[in-house]
Specification:
The chain is built from 4 helices and 36 strands. By secondary structure, the chain is mainly beta. It has 5 domains: 107 residues, Sandwich (Immunoglobulin-like); 113 residues, Jelly Rolls, CATH 2.60.120; 85 residues, Immunoglobulin-like (Sandwich); 82 residues, Sandwich (Immunoglobulin-like), CATH 2.60.40.10; 82 residues. The structure holds calcium ion (CA) (4 copies).
Protein backbone atom coordinates (compact mmCIF):
# COMPACT_ATOMS: atom_id res chain seq x y z
CA UNK A 1 0.00 0.00 0.00
CA UNK A 2 1.45 3.38 -1.07
CA UNK A 3 0.50 6.96 -1.38
CA UNK A 4 0.80 9.08 -4.51
CA UNK A 5 1.22 12.84 -4.15
CA UNK A 6 -1.83 14.87 -5.16
CA UNK A 7 -1.80 16.74 -8.47
CA UNK A 8 -2.56 20.42 -7.99
CA UNK A 9 -3.87 22.29 -11.04
CA UNK A 10 -4.37 26.03 -11.21
CA UNK A 11 -7.38 26.41 -13.50
CA UNK A 12 -7.23 30.21 -13.33
CA UNK A 13 -5.44 32.50 -13.85
CA UNK A 14 -3.36 31.19 -16.76
CA UNK A 15 0.41 31.00 -16.43
CA UNK A 16 1.97 34.18 -17.82
CA UNK A 17 -1.15 36.33 -17.48
CA UNK A 18 -0.83 40.09 -17.07
CA UNK A 19 -1.89 42.27 -14.14
CA UNK A 20 -1.25 45.65 -12.51
CA UNK A 21 0.16 45.92 -9.00
CA UNK A 22 -2.79 46.41 -6.64
CA UNK A 23 -5.14 44.24 -8.73
CA UNK A 24 -6.97 41.27 -7.23
CA UNK A 25 -6.57 38.14 -9.36
CA UNK A 26 -9.44 35.61 -9.32
CA UNK A 27 -8.15 32.06 -8.97
CA UNK A 28 -9.55 28.56 -9.12
CA UNK A 29 -7.67 25.47 -7.90
CA UNK A 30 -8.34 21.81 -8.61
CA UNK A 31 -6.69 18.86 -6.89
CA UNK A 32 -6.86 15.25 -7.95
CA UNK A 33 -5.38 12.48 -5.91
CA UNK A 34 -5.12 8.80 -6.72
CA UNK A 35 -6.14 7.79 -3.19
CA UNK A 36 -8.29 10.69 -1.95
CA UNK A 37 -10.21 11.49 -5.15
CA UNK A 38 -10.82 14.76 -6.98
CA UNK A 39 -12.69 16.71 -4.31
CA UNK A 40 -10.08 18.47 -2.18
CA UNK A 41 -10.61 19.84 1.30
CA UNK A 42 -10.53 23.49 0.22
CA UNK A 43 -9.31 24.73 3.60
CA UNK A 44 -6.15 22.68 2.95
CA UNK A 45 -5.48 24.31 -0.42
CA UNK A 46 -2.73 26.78 0.49
CA UNK A 47 -1.38 29.53 -1.69
CA UNK A 48 1.41 32.03 -1.34
CA UNK A 49 1.64 35.10 -3.50
CA UNK A 50 5.24 36.24 -3.73
CA UNK A 51 7.22 38.81 -5.58
CA UNK A 52 9.41 37.23 -8.20
CA UNK A 53 12.71 39.04 -8.21
CA UNK A 54 15.23 37.88 -10.79
CA UNK A 55 15.65 34.24 -9.79
CA UNK A 56 14.17 34.15 -6.30
CA UNK A 57 10.79 35.05 -4.76
CA UNK A 58 9.76 37.00 -1.67
CA UNK A 59 6.59 35.57 -0.06
CA UNK A 60 4.06 38.35 0.39
CA UNK A 61 0.59 37.01 1.12
CA UNK A 62 -0.73 33.59 2.02
CA UNK A 63 -4.22 32.15 2.12
CA UNK A 64 -6.34 29.07 1.65
CA UNK A 65 -9.25 28.05 -0.52
CA UNK A 66 -10.18 26.42 -3.82
CA UNK A 67 -11.26 29.77 -5.24
CA UNK A 68 -11.09 33.44 -4.42
CA UNK A 69 -8.75 36.23 -5.37
CA UNK A 70 -5.05 36.73 -4.89
CA UNK A 71 -4.23 40.24 -3.76
CA UNK A 72 -1.22 41.86 -5.38
CA UNK A 73 0.63 44.54 -3.42
CA UNK A 74 0.20 48.03 -4.83
CA UNK A 75 3.51 48.92 -3.22
CA UNK A 76 5.52 46.25 -5.09
CA UNK A 77 7.26 48.73 -7.46
CA UNK A 78 8.76 50.36 -4.35
CA UNK A 79 11.12 47.39 -4.16
CA UNK A 80 13.24 49.31 -6.61
CA UNK A 81 12.52 51.15 -9.79
CA UNK A 82 15.10 49.22 -11.73
CA UNK A 83 14.27 45.78 -10.33
CA UNK A 84 12.64 43.06 -12.38
CA UNK A 85 9.64 42.21 -10.22
CA UNK A 86 6.74 39.93 -11.15
CA UNK A 87 4.17 37.75 -9.43
CA UNK A 88 4.85 34.18 -8.36
CA UNK A 89 2.15 32.07 -6.77
CA UNK A 90 2.83 28.71 -5.22
CA UNK A 91 -0.19 26.51 -4.46
CA UNK A 92 0.18 23.40 -2.35
CA UNK A 93 -2.01 20.62 -1.02
CA UNK A 94 -1.19 17.84 1.39
CA UNK A 95 -3.23 14.68 0.92
CA UNK A 96 -4.62 12.36 3.61
CA UNK A 97 -1.74 9.92 3.49
CA UNK A 98 -2.43 6.20 3.75
CA UNK A 99 -2.31 4.30 7.02
CA UNK A 100 1.08 4.95 8.58
CA UNK A 101 2.29 6.81 5.45
CA UNK A 102 2.15 10.58 6.05
CA UNK A 103 0.35 12.94 3.72
CA UNK A 104 2.17 13.79 0.51
CA UNK A 105 2.51 17.30 -0.82
CA UNK A 106 1.45 18.39 -4.32
CA UNK A 107 2.41 21.78 -5.65
CA UNK A 108 1.80 24.03 -8.65
CA UNK A 109 3.22 27.43 -9.55
CA UNK A 110 2.07 30.45 -11.53
CA UNK A 111 4.18 33.25 -12.91
CA UNK A 112 2.24 36.44 -13.61
CA UNK A 113 3.53 39.45 -15.49
CA UNK A 114 3.09 43.12 -14.60
CA UNK A 115 1.58 44.96 -17.56
CA UNK A 116 4.51 47.39 -17.51
CA UNK A 117 7.23 45.17 -18.95
CA UNK A 118 10.75 46.50 -19.38
CA UNK A 119 12.61 45.67 -22.58
CA UNK A 120 15.78 45.20 -20.55
CA UNK A 121 13.98 42.66 -18.25
CA UNK A 122 13.35 40.17 -21.05
CA UNK A 123 13.92 36.61 -19.86
CA UNK A 124 16.28 35.83 -22.68
CA UNK A 125 17.82 37.92 -25.42
CA UNK A 126 20.12 37.66 -28.38
CA UNK A 127 22.29 40.40 -29.85
CA UNK A 128 20.97 43.33 -27.85
CA UNK A 129 22.76 45.56 -25.35
CA UNK A 130 21.30 46.79 -22.08
CA UNK A 131 22.21 50.46 -21.75
CA UNK A 132 21.65 52.70 -18.71
CA UNK A 133 19.55 55.79 -19.48
CA UNK A 134 18.09 58.05 -16.77
CA UNK A 135 15.33 59.16 -19.15
CA UNK A 136 14.21 55.57 -19.72
CA UNK A 137 11.62 53.67 -17.72
CA UNK A 138 13.48 51.71 -15.00
CA UNK A 139 16.53 53.74 -16.04
CA UNK A 140 17.60 51.37 -18.83
CA UNK A 141 16.93 50.54 -22.47
CA UNK A 142 18.00 48.08 -25.14
CA UNK A 143 20.28 49.31 -27.85
CA UNK A 144 22.00 47.59 -30.73
CA UNK A 145 18.66 45.92 -31.55
CA UNK A 146 19.51 44.87 -35.08
CA UNK A 147 17.76 42.66 -37.64
CA UNK A 148 18.17 39.07 -36.48
CA UNK A 149 18.40 40.06 -32.80
CA UNK A 150 15.56 39.16 -30.48
CA UNK A 151 14.33 39.33 -26.94
CA UNK A 152 11.88 36.88 -25.37
CA UNK A 153 9.46 36.71 -22.44
CA UNK A 154 8.29 33.40 -20.99
CA UNK A 155 5.66 32.55 -19.83
CA UNK A 156 3.17 34.90 -21.50
CA UNK A 157 -0.59 34.58 -21.79
CA UNK A 158 -2.64 37.31 -23.46
CA UNK A 159 -5.93 36.71 -21.56
CA UNK A 160 -7.70 40.06 -21.19
CA UNK A 161 -5.12 41.97 -23.24
CA UNK A 162 -6.38 44.35 -25.93
CA UNK A 163 -3.33 46.40 -26.92
CA UNK A 164 0.20 47.44 -26.16
CA UNK A 165 1.87 50.82 -25.68
CA UNK A 166 5.49 50.75 -26.80
CA UNK A 167 8.07 53.27 -25.58
CA UNK A 168 10.89 53.49 -28.08
CA UNK A 169 13.22 55.94 -29.78
CA UNK A 170 14.49 56.09 -33.35
CA UNK A 171 12.65 54.86 -36.41
CA UNK A 172 11.87 51.37 -37.55
CA UNK A 173 9.46 48.52 -37.04
CA UNK A 174 9.22 46.07 -34.15
CA UNK A 175 7.56 42.69 -34.64
CA UNK A 176 5.84 40.54 -32.03
CA UNK A 177 6.10 36.78 -32.67
CA UNK A 178 4.91 33.68 -30.88
CA UNK A 179 7.14 30.82 -29.72
CA UNK A 180 9.89 31.44 -32.31
CA UNK A 181 11.93 34.46 -33.41
CA UNK A 182 11.28 33.29 -36.96
CA UNK A 183 7.49 32.92 -36.63
CA UNK A 184 5.25 35.20 -38.70
CA UNK A 185 4.60 38.32 -36.58
CA UNK A 186 1.15 38.43 -35.03
CA UNK A 187 1.54 42.19 -34.57
CA UNK A 188 3.93 44.91 -35.68
CA UNK A 189 4.73 48.22 -34.03
CA UNK A 190 5.87 50.95 -36.43
CA UNK A 191 8.11 53.47 -34.66
CA UNK A 192 7.90 56.71 -36.66
CA UNK A 193 10.90 59.04 -36.99
CA UNK A 194 10.89 61.53 -34.16
CA UNK A 195 12.92 63.13 -31.42
CA UNK A 196 13.43 61.39 -28.08
CA UNK A 197 11.11 58.80 -26.58
CA UNK A 198 7.90 58.06 -28.39
CA UNK A 199 4.90 56.09 -27.21
CA UNK A 200 3.14 54.05 -29.86
CA UNK A 201 -0.25 52.55 -29.06
CA UNK A 202 -1.08 49.38 -30.97
CA UNK A 203 -4.41 47.58 -30.74
CA UNK A 204 -3.90 43.83 -30.53
CA UNK A 205 -6.39 41.48 -32.13
CA UNK A 206 -6.31 37.79 -32.93
CA UNK A 207 -3.69 37.25 -30.24
CA UNK A 208 -2.10 33.82 -29.81
CA UNK A 209 -3.97 31.58 -27.40
CA UNK A 210 -2.56 29.68 -24.48
CA UNK A 211 0.69 30.17 -22.63
CA UNK A 212 3.77 30.61 -24.74
CA UNK A 213 6.90 32.60 -25.39
CA UNK A 214 6.71 36.15 -26.71
CA UNK A 215 9.53 37.16 -29.07
CA UNK A 216 10.22 40.72 -30.14
CA UNK A 217 12.36 41.44 -33.20
CA UNK A 218 13.32 44.71 -34.84
CA UNK A 219 14.01 46.09 -38.31
CA UNK A 220 16.87 48.00 -36.63
CA UNK A 221 17.19 51.67 -35.86
CA UNK A 222 15.06 51.50 -32.73
CA UNK A 223 16.09 51.76 -29.07
CA UNK A 224 13.48 49.93 -27.00
CA UNK A 225 12.53 51.01 -23.49
CA UNK A 226 9.37 49.25 -22.33
CA UNK A 227 5.99 47.79 -23.23
CA UNK A 228 2.79 48.46 -21.30
CA UNK A 229 0.09 45.95 -22.12
CA UNK A 230 -3.47 47.25 -22.11
CA UNK A 231 -6.72 45.63 -20.94
CA UNK A 232 -7.73 44.01 -17.69
CA UNK A 233 -5.44 41.02 -18.11
CA UNK A 234 -6.14 38.44 -15.42
CA UNK A 235 -7.27 41.07 -12.91
CA UNK A 236 -10.75 40.98 -11.43
CA UNK A 237 -12.68 43.52 -13.48
CA UNK A 238 -16.11 41.96 -12.97
CA UNK A 239 -18.29 43.37 -10.21
CA UNK A 240 -20.11 40.98 -7.90
CA UNK A 241 -23.66 39.86 -8.57
CA UNK A 242 -25.79 40.96 -5.66
CA UNK A 243 -29.25 40.01 -4.43
CA UNK A 244 -31.25 40.85 -1.33
CA UNK A 245 -33.98 39.06 0.56
CA UNK A 246 -36.35 40.18 3.27
CA UNK A 247 -37.57 38.16 6.23
CA UNK A 248 -40.41 37.64 6.61
CA UNK A 249 -40.61 37.24 2.84
CA UNK A 250 -44.24 38.31 2.73
CA UNK A 251 -45.49 41.34 4.67
CA UNK A 252 -47.88 40.50 7.49
CA UNK A 253 -50.01 43.59 6.90
CA UNK A 254 -52.18 44.74 4.02
CA UNK A 255 -51.10 46.51 0.83
CA UNK A 256 -47.51 45.33 1.12
CA UNK A 257 -46.95 46.80 4.60
CA UNK A 258 -44.97 45.03 7.27
CA UNK A 259 -46.31 45.51 10.77
CA UNK A 260 -42.98 44.86 12.52
CA UNK A 261 -39.23 44.91 11.95
CA UNK A 262 -37.85 43.35 8.78
CA UNK A 263 -34.52 41.57 8.32
CA UNK A 264 -32.56 42.43 5.20
CA UNK A 265 -30.03 39.90 3.98
CA UNK A 266 -27.69 40.94 1.18
CA UNK A 267 -26.09 38.08 -0.73
CA UNK A 268 -23.42 38.35 -3.39
CA UNK A 269 -21.19 36.20 -5.51
CA UNK A 270 -18.03 37.19 -7.31
CA UNK A 271 -15.64 35.66 -9.82
CA UNK A 272 -12.88 36.54 -7.34
CA UNK A 273 -13.53 37.27 -3.71
CA UNK A 274 -16.04 39.55 -2.01
CA UNK A 275 -14.73 42.56 -0.13
CA UNK A 276 -18.06 43.49 1.42
CA UNK A 277 -21.78 44.07 1.16
CA UNK A 278 -23.51 47.34 1.97
CA UNK A 279 -26.94 48.91 2.13
CA UNK A 280 -28.18 52.47 1.99
CA UNK A 281 -31.37 54.04 3.26
CA UNK A 282 -30.69 57.49 1.82
CA UNK A 283 -30.59 56.79 -1.88
CA UNK A 284 -26.92 55.86 -1.94
CA UNK A 285 -25.50 58.93 -0.18
CA UNK A 286 -24.22 56.87 2.73
CA UNK A 287 -23.64 53.13 2.86
CA UNK A 288 -23.62 50.90 5.90
CA UNK A 289 -22.25 47.42 6.44
CA UNK A 290 -24.55 44.58 5.36
CA UNK A 291 -22.10 41.70 5.72
CA UNK A 292 -24.48 40.35 8.36
CA UNK A 293 -28.29 40.50 8.23
CA UNK A 294 -29.59 43.98 8.97
CA UNK A 295 -32.69 44.79 11.01
CA UNK A 296 -34.83 47.44 9.33
CA UNK A 297 -37.04 49.10 11.93
CA UNK A 298 -37.78 52.61 10.68
CA UNK A 299 -41.44 53.16 9.93
CA UNK A 300 -42.70 54.37 6.58
CA UNK A 301 -42.07 53.35 3.00
CA UNK A 302 -38.32 53.31 2.49
CA UNK A 303 -36.26 52.58 -0.58
CA UNK A 304 -33.43 50.26 0.36
CA UNK A 305 -30.39 50.07 -1.88
CA UNK A 306 -27.86 47.29 -1.65
CA UNK A 307 -24.59 46.51 -3.35
CA UNK A 308 -21.46 44.45 -3.06
CA UNK A 309 -17.81 45.20 -3.64
CA UNK A 310 -15.39 42.64 -5.01
CA UNK A 311 -11.80 42.24 -3.90
CA UNK A 312 -10.83 43.90 -7.17
CA UNK A 313 -12.58 47.05 -5.96
CA UNK A 314 -15.38 46.62 -8.47
CA UNK A 315 -18.74 47.68 -7.10
CA UNK A 316 -21.94 46.07 -8.32
CA UNK A 317 -24.69 48.32 -9.63
CA UNK A 318 -27.02 48.85 -6.68
CA UNK A 319 -30.21 46.85 -6.39
CA UNK A 320 -33.25 48.49 -4.89
CA UNK A 321 -36.29 47.32 -3.04
CA UNK A 322 -38.98 49.12 -1.13
CA UNK A 323 -39.73 48.17 2.46
CA UNK A 324 -42.92 49.50 4.05
CA UNK A 325 -43.12 49.24 7.83
CA UNK A 326 -46.04 50.37 9.98
CA UNK A 327 -45.76 49.48 13.67
CA UNK A 328 -48.24 52.06 14.98
CA UNK A 329 -51.99 51.74 15.36
CA UNK A 330 -54.18 54.61 14.16
CA UNK A 331 -55.37 57.19 16.68
CA UNK A 332 -59.18 57.53 16.66
CA UNK A 333 -61.15 60.42 18.08
CA UNK A 334 -64.89 60.85 18.46
CA UNK A 335 -66.45 64.31 18.72
CA UNK A 336 -70.06 65.51 18.93
CA UNK A 337 -70.99 63.06 21.69
CA UNK A 338 -71.00 64.51 25.21
CA UNK A 339 -71.59 61.95 27.98
CA UNK A 340 -75.03 63.44 28.67
CA UNK A 341 -77.66 62.68 29.83
CA UNK A 342 -79.38 63.98 26.74
CA UNK A 343 -83.11 64.60 26.42
CA UNK A 344 -84.49 62.33 23.76
CA UNK A 345 -85.92 65.19 21.70
CA UNK A 346 -82.35 66.19 20.90
CA UNK A 347 -80.06 64.82 18.23
CA UNK A 348 -76.35 64.10 18.38
CA UNK A 349 -73.98 64.29 15.45
CA UNK A 350 -71.07 61.94 16.15
CA UNK A 351 -67.96 62.61 14.08
CA UNK A 352 -65.24 59.97 14.00
CA UNK A 353 -61.82 61.00 12.76
CA UNK A 354 -58.41 59.38 12.80
CA UNK A 355 -54.76 59.99 12.12
CA UNK A 356 -52.14 57.38 11.41
CA UNK A 357 -48.39 57.20 11.47
CA UNK A 358 -46.63 55.40 8.59
CA UNK A 359 -49.20 53.93 6.22
CA UNK A 360 -52.05 56.40 6.72
CA UNK A 361 -55.75 56.00 7.43
CA UNK A 362 -57.55 53.64 5.09
CA UNK A 363 -61.03 53.55 6.63
CA UNK A 364 -63.03 55.09 9.48
CA UNK A 365 -66.33 53.61 10.69
CA UNK A 366 -68.76 54.29 13.50
CA UNK A 367 -71.36 52.17 15.18
CA UNK A 368 -73.94 52.95 17.80
CA UNK A 369 -74.84 50.09 20.11
CA UNK A 370 -73.55 47.71 17.45
CA UNK A 371 -75.39 49.23 14.50
CA UNK A 372 -73.37 51.09 11.87
CA UNK A 373 -73.97 54.82 11.71
CA UNK A 374 -72.54 57.42 9.38
CA UNK A 375 -69.95 59.75 10.85
CA UNK A 376 -71.22 63.35 10.65
CA UNK A 377 -74.88 62.41 10.25
CA UNK A 378 -77.30 63.51 13.03
CA UNK A 379 -78.78 60.73 15.16
CA UNK A 380 -82.32 61.57 16.52
CA UNK A 381 -82.17 60.30 20.09
CA UNK A 382 -85.89 59.41 20.34
CA UNK A 383 -85.15 56.54 18.01
CA UNK A 384 -82.83 55.00 20.66
CA UNK A 385 -84.01 53.20 23.79
CA UNK A 386 -83.74 55.38 26.89
CA UNK A 387 -80.58 54.71 28.88
CA UNK A 388 -76.88 54.10 28.22
CA UNK A 389 -75.43 53.96 24.72
CA UNK A 390 -72.06 53.18 23.25
CA UNK A 391 -70.70 54.92 20.25
CA UNK A 392 -67.64 53.12 18.85
CA UNK A 393 -65.32 54.78 16.36
CA UNK A 394 -62.97 52.44 14.50
CA UNK A 395 -60.08 53.35 12.21
CA UNK A 396 -58.03 51.01 10.05
CA UNK A 397 -54.73 52.01 8.46
CA UNK A 398 -53.48 50.86 5.09
CA UNK A 399 -51.34 48.25 6.81
CA UNK A 400 -54.47 46.73 8.31
CA UNK A 401 -53.84 47.91 11.84
CA UNK A 402 -57.00 49.12 13.58
CA UNK A 403 -57.94 50.93 16.75
CA UNK A 404 -61.22 51.89 18.40
CA UNK A 405 -62.42 54.62 20.69
CA UNK A 406 -65.65 54.15 22.67
CA UNK A 407 -67.75 57.01 24.00
CA UNK A 408 -70.75 56.31 26.25
CA UNK A 409 -73.69 58.63 26.71
CA UNK A 410 -77.17 58.51 28.28
CA UNK A 411 -80.62 59.48 27.05
CA UNK A 412 -83.61 60.46 29.21
CA UNK A 413 -86.97 61.98 28.66
CA UNK A 414 -89.01 64.76 30.27
CA UNK A 415 -92.34 66.61 29.77
CA UNK A 416 -90.49 69.12 27.62
CA UNK A 417 -88.93 66.37 25.48
CA UNK A 418 -92.28 64.65 24.93
CA UNK A 419 -93.87 68.00 24.06
CA UNK A 420 -91.14 68.65 21.53
CA UNK A 421 -91.57 65.18 20.04
CA UNK A 422 -95.36 65.64 19.67
CA UNK A 423 -94.71 68.87 17.85
CA UNK A 424 -92.15 67.21 15.60
CA UNK A 425 -94.41 64.26 14.79
CA UNK A 426 -97.22 66.71 14.04
CA UNK A 427 -94.98 68.53 11.57
CA UNK A 428 -94.04 65.22 10.00
CA UNK A 429 -97.76 64.39 9.74
CA UNK A 430 -97.28 61.32 11.92
CA UNK A 431 -100.10 62.59 14.13
CA UNK A 432 -103.10 64.74 13.29
CA UNK A 433 -103.64 68.16 14.82
CA UNK A 434 -106.50 66.79 16.85
CA UNK A 435 -104.48 63.91 18.32
CA UNK A 436 -101.54 66.21 18.96
CA UNK A 437 -103.81 68.57 20.95
CA UNK A 438 -105.24 65.69 22.94
CA UNK A 439 -101.81 64.27 23.75
CA UNK A 440 -100.59 67.76 24.62
CA UNK A 441 -103.51 68.31 26.95
CA UNK A 442 -102.92 65.04 28.89
CA UNK A 443 -99.23 65.83 29.15
CA UNK A 444 -99.94 69.34 30.44
CA UNK A 445 -102.34 67.93 33.04
CA UNK A 446 -99.80 65.44 34.26
CA UNK A 447 -97.18 68.13 34.51
CA UNK A 448 -99.52 70.45 36.49
CA UNK A 449 -100.49 67.65 38.88
CA UNK A 450 -96.91 66.73 39.51
CA UNK A 451 -95.98 70.32 40.18
CA UNK A 452 -98.64 70.38 42.88
CA UNK A 453 -97.40 67.12 44.33
CA UNK A 454 -100.43 65.14 43.07
CA UNK A 455 -98.58 62.14 41.82
CA UNK A 456 -101.55 59.82 41.55
CA UNK A 457 -103.44 62.27 39.34
CA UNK A 458 -100.31 62.88 37.27
CA UNK A 459 -99.96 59.13 36.69
CA UNK A 460 -103.64 58.94 35.67
CA UNK A 461 -103.17 61.72 33.10
CA UNK A 462 -100.09 59.95 31.66
CA UNK A 463 -102.02 56.68 31.47
CA UNK A 464 -104.68 58.49 29.43
CA UNK A 465 -101.83 59.83 27.27
CA UNK A 466 -100.68 56.25 26.70
CA UNK A 467 -104.20 55.13 25.75
CA UNK A 468 -104.36 57.83 23.10
CA UNK A 469 -100.83 57.38 21.87
CA UNK A 470 -100.90 53.62 21.52
CA UNK A 471 -103.89 53.65 19.16
CA UNK A 472 -102.67 52.75 15.71
CA UNK A 473 -105.07 55.18 14.07
CA UNK A 474 -103.83 58.06 16.22
CA UNK A 475 -100.10 57.76 15.59
CA UNK A 476 -99.44 56.34 12.14
CA UNK A 477 -95.67 55.95 12.38
CA UNK A 478 -94.94 52.83 14.50
CA UNK A 479 -91.60 54.18 15.73
CA UNK A 480 -93.14 57.48 16.79
CA UNK A 481 -96.02 55.63 18.46
CA UNK A 482 -93.65 53.39 20.41
CA UNK A 483 -91.49 56.34 21.45
CA UNK A 484 -94.44 58.34 22.83
CA UNK A 485 -95.75 55.32 24.78
CA UNK A 486 -92.27 54.50 26.04
CA UNK A 487 -91.59 58.08 27.18
CA UNK A 488 -94.94 58.36 28.96
CA UNK A 489 -94.30 55.06 30.70
CA UNK A 490 -90.86 56.32 31.73
CA UNK A 491 -92.48 59.41 33.27
CA UNK A 492 -94.99 57.17 35.09
CA UNK A 493 -92.20 54.99 36.37
CA UNK A 494 -90.37 58.03 37.71
CA UNK A 495 -93.56 59.25 39.45
CA UNK A 496 -94.05 55.86 41.04
CA UNK A 497 -90.52 55.48 42.30
CA UNK A 498 -90.08 56.64 45.88
CA1 LIG B 1 -2.26 10.61 -2.50
CA1 LIG C 1 13.45 50.29 -19.70
CA1 LIG D 1 -15.09 40.44 -9.29
CA1 LIG E 1 -50.11 52.97 11.26
Amino acid sequence: MGNTAPVVSIQAPPDGGFFDWGNALPYRIGVSDAEDGDTPVCSRVQWTFGLGHDTHAHPETTGTGCSGAWPTPASAPEHGETENIYGVVVVSYRDNGAGAIPGALGEATRVLNPKLTQAEHADTASGVVETPDDTASAKAKLTSFDPGDWIAYDPVHFAGITGVVTRAAGAGTLALRWNSPAAEPFATVPVPAGDGWQTITTALQGLPEGTGRLYVTSSGGVDLDAFTFQGGGVADTTPPAVTATLAPAQPGGSNGWYTGDVTLTVTATDNGALAGRQYSLDGGTTWANANNPVTLSAEGAKEVRYRATGSGGNVSPPGTLTVKIDKTDPVVSVTGVAPGPHGDSAALTPVVSATDAASGVAKVTADLDGTPVASGKPVPLWRLPLGEHRLTGTATDRAGRSATTVVTFGTTTSYADVRALISRFRQAAAVSGKVASELGEQLAQAERHERKGKRVQAVAALERFVKVAEKRGNVRDPAARAALVRDAEALIERLRSP
